[in-house]
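Reopening this ticket.

The earlier resolution said the output was attached, but the attachment link was broken on my side. Pasting everything inline this time so it's all in one place.
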Amino acid sequence: MKKSLGAKTLLYPAPVLVIGTYDVEGKANAMTASWGGICCSTPPCLAVSVRKATYTYGNLIAQKAFTINIPSEAQIKAADYFGIVSGKNEDKFKTSSLTPVKAEFVNAPYIKEFPLVIECRLIQTFEIGSHTQFIGEVMDIKADESVLGEGDVPDIEKLKPVVFTPVSRNYYGIGRFVGKAFSIGKG
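Inline output:
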């Protein structure tokens, strides 16, 4: 028998995403968020949800652009830091010693040291409740060659992305391969 847990933000796993934005003066900022993911195939779009109280919220509204930076296990300490401190009060790039790089296709910074970067142009916002969902059209994806596999696509075992468990508030690495999608269920 299943036990009711009530209504809460529980979806396992949640991605660890670091959103890169510029403020109105052009200062680079980054914020960790786990409320996000793919929301459309054509055009390719990603969605992230952010509270109005965040510095990133104002930056997203002002610049209409953002990057999504995917940290590897080796960068989880910096990714966590980006979610703890507000860019209103501190220069997160200076403190973390990470490097902001101007994105090629949108007016937003990406994090040079993170292995996978997605450049997004803001196309839609939705007020949901405590969060606003920002939908960005993917304009480009950049990956370190060291995380690419066959066919020049990111290899999850080389990338080593991190996931978040919202209720227990823990980070985890990705587990083992269990089957080929759209194939294992045949027959």
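Reporter confirms the inline version is readable. The mean pLDDT is 95. Residues 14-173 form a domain with the Pnp Oxidase; Chain A fold (CATH 2.30.110.10).
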